Amino acid sequence: MPGQHLAGTLLCHAGPFRIAFPAQDVAVIDAPALHAGRSRSAREAFGELPAAARVLLAPSGETVGVDTLEIDSEVHRVMDTPPVLARLAGGSLLGFIYTRGALWPLVRLVDFEHYLSGAAREAA
């Protein structure tokens, strides 16, 4: 995906941090109560306590909670990911997009949820 253009992203916040998901990765945006604690929180990737105001649901069933989200229909160029960052993010990091005056890490929802689940198992 690096060097390609992407139309449609969900720009999200997890605590003070930014994260973006390709819109096609998200089938449903739900309330956290509908998932009864089964979803991972994007805050966990940044060492924050889990919390979520919205839950993103992938077509295959994986869920990730975020604090805020904004649907962005603009076309963005996906910038390359340094290989060391790609490995650290468990392969979920697709690259970065530049919008709203800042860089946003772009991740695949399914892979990011798997990364969060693995990090939670390691912490336990």
What key attributes describe this structure?
four-stranded mixed beta sheet, three-stranded antiparallel beta sheet, 17% helix, alpha+beta, globular, 124 residues
Outline:
This protein has one domain.
Please explain how this structure is put together.
By secondary structure, the chain is α+β, with helices and mostly antiparallel strands. The chain has one domain (5-123). The protein contains two helices and nine strands. It has helices spanning 83-88, 109-123; strands spanning 5-14, 17-22, 28-30, 40-41, 54-57, 63-66, 68-77, 93-99, 102-107. The strands form three sheets. A four-stranded mixed beta sheet has the order 3-5-6-4. A three-stranded antiparallel beta sheet has the order 2-1-7, with no helix packed on it. Strands 8-9 form a two-stranded antiparallel sheet. The longest helix is centred in the C-terminal third of the chain and has 15 residues, at 109-123. The N and C termini lie far apart (34 Å). The model has no long low-confidence stretch (mean pLDDT 88). This is Protein CrdC.
